[in-house]
Each structure stands twice: as C-alpha cells, then as structure tokens.
Amino acid sequence: MSRHLRKVIAAVLIPFSVAVAVGLAVLWPGGAPGHKGDSGLGFDRTTESGRVVRIDQVRCADVHAQPQQPPPGQQSGDPAAGGAAKDEMCEKATIEVTSGKDKGRTFPEIVQPSASRQYEKGQKLILAYAPKAPKDLQYSVSDVDREMPMALLAGLFALAVVAVGRLRGVFALVALAISFGVLTLFILPAILAGSNPLVVAVVGGSTIMLVALYMCHGLTARTSVAVLGTLISLLLIGLLGSLFIGWAHLTGNTDDQTGLVHGLYPDIEIQGLLLAGVIIGSLGVLDDVTVTQTSAVWELKEADPSAHWRTLYAAAMRIGRDHIASVVNTLVLAYAGAALPLLLLFSIADSGVSTVATSEIVAEEIVRTLVGSIGLVASVPVTTLLAALVVSADRTPASVPAAASGRAGSAGGSGSAGGGRGAGASVGRRADGGADPAPAPNAGPGPSAPAGRGAGLPGRGKGRRRRAK
Question: Is the pLDDT of residue 362 over 60?
C-alpha cells in the first residue's frame, strides 16, 4: 500500500477507534445492576441437579391431576383441550436430587398426557429449590439439563470451522468469543444500568466490528475498507431506524419479556432498546456483505492490474447485485422464522392484511426488517466504490505494468547485444567443432550490431575458444 493511502485510511480509522475505546471506558458498567424481588424468570433461584429414576403409569383421577386451562371454545376435560379425562392415564415420574445438601432425596412429579414436556428414565433435569417451602414442596422441576447436547453441538461447530477455515477459522472462533464477551459484559449490563441503549449499541457494535474484522482478515487496506463500509451502513441504519421508529410511534413494549424488563428496570428506555436491537441484528450480515464486496474488488484488480476504478466498480457491482438479492431474502426469512408463532396467530385472525401489518407488534418487525435491509442494500455500492477508489489509488499494483514494460523494453534494446553474445558463443562452438572458420581477431562488428558490444564479442569468443582448448 502506498504511504499516502495508508495515511488517509489511518486518519479516518484511528480517531474512530479511539472514540470507541473512550466510549467503552466511559460507559463500562462494571457488572449488571441488582434489582429488588424475584425476576419472575426463575434464573435467580437456587438450582440443583436431578434425574428421573422411575416412571409409573397411574390414573390421573387417582393422583388428583388438575386439568390444564382449556383454550377458548373448548370445555374442561376434553382431551383435545388439554384437560385430563376421567379414565385417562398419567405418568408419575420419580425424581432424585443428585447435588446439594439433599442429595439422594426423591420426590414425585405428575405428567399429564397433553403436557408439552414428557420425561424418560435416566433423563437429567434442573431442579428449583425453595428453602422456605414445606419439605415435600421444596424441589420442583425447573428445566431439562441440555448441557451435553449443547456442548456437543458447539464442539461440532468449532471443528467444522477449524477444519475448513484452518488458522483463519481459529481466529474467527476467538473473535466470536470476544463478541459474546462484549455483548454479555458490556452491552447488556450497560443498558440495564440505565445508559442510552442506542449509544451503547453503537459503541459495543463498533467494538465487535473492529475486533472481528481485523482479527479474521488482518490489518490490511482491504479490511480497513470493509470497516469503513460497515460503519457508513450502520450510521444509515441508525438514522433510518430512529426516524421511522419515532414516526410510526413504536414503543418497543410489545411482548411479555420487554414488559418484564421494563418492570424490573424502569429507567431503561424501551424505544431505544428496540433501535439498539436493529443495529446489533444488522451488524453480522453487514460484515459479510462488506468483506465480500471488498475481496471481490481486490481480486478483480489482481486479475487485471491496469483496470480503471470505474471498470472495477462495474464488475464488482454485478457480483454485489446477486449478493443483495440473496442477503435481503435471508434477512427477511430470518425475522419471519423468529416471529413464526406470531404470524400463525395473525393468519387465523379475522382482520385484514393492512390492519395486521400496521398493528404495533407486527409493524415493529416490519420496520426492523426493512431498515436493516436498506442498510444492507446501501452497503454494497458504498463499499464497492470505496474499495475501487482505494485499490486504484494504491500505486503499488499500478506500477507493475510499467515495470514489466520497462523490463521488456530493456530486453528489446539489448536484443542485438544478446544476439552478439549468442553469435560469439556460436562462433566459439563452431570453431571447436570445426564447422566454421573463426573470425579474424581484428574483425569489426556486423552492420546491425552496436559498435561497443559488437567490438567486444569476438574477444569473448576467443576467450571461450581458449578455455575450450
């Protein structure tokens, strides 16, 4: 990279990196703040390990199994409604506590046939412990122990990344761990501490972007262009998101989880939390788009070092248009998959499509999807243009054709001298073989040979004849 180009990139990225570092230092929360009372999620309760040691079939009526609340339009006791029929059979699971001071204690757990969670013998469980409850009710099943399948899946993922990506795959896993650390140690606690969610998302997302891109792709001009393209696109997403979230009067408080968070931490700005989610959610896909477009421009320049920046831009945009179509479709389907239960509920509603689409709970997802998609679409021409200008301004690749032509010209200029050398060598070889007579010692150069080189060639031929003798 030329020195001038290096200075230009450094003049942009160094102040940005310093600002991100200062933002981290100023907003660093030092851990998640506490709250009064129970969170309502069960994660702040004492838990122990357990396992199913026995399963028996019993009549639901004999164990006084309470029927589940039936949905609207169905009566209690109807099997289709989730209630227990009179002669229906339930499962009585015997659970053993396998950790803590009560290790070895057992307690029963009744499972109705319509329950979503069914047990099997030997299955590991997470038990909730309530020390103030009566002894028979101190332990209850909180969740299933999924440690083994989750660890195995994570191991397979890491193995696949390293097997295909090799050293770069290792760096990608390290960057992933750092990104997860920034999310859990900075972004979430800082938002809970009352900091502006938008500012926290910008600082945390920028940190993740810098670490991930430079660690995975190296400290090069190519990576720096991808960083600049990602930064510009993130700013566009932030501006559009702030405009349309405010214009559409989206509060962000549309589900039970958000309401619970707001109830536990009233100082959190829920609308800003929605915008922060849009920025962080778009960051991962933005990295993919900007890195791909930058690499495409660099490879095109390597293939044709004499290509003008307009040619590079046009060729890379043909690649980018295909990328836009696939990425936008991927982003929309990702949001649709996450909101699939919600879409199922609205598909059976009697309201029209426009009414459903403009309701807050659906409009929030639409704004999130479209704002992120606009940022992704804009990142392709922006990053491609930056990459084409930078790689064309870099004098190192551009000097290759000139140097090559200079070498070719030099070789052409000394062609007669080379011919003279070849002639002298040929004369010597022929003289040794007796095929041709050797030239006279004072023979002058031929009509087409340069005087200086031609005059010296017979002498070289004689020297070679002497060495041959």
Answer: yes
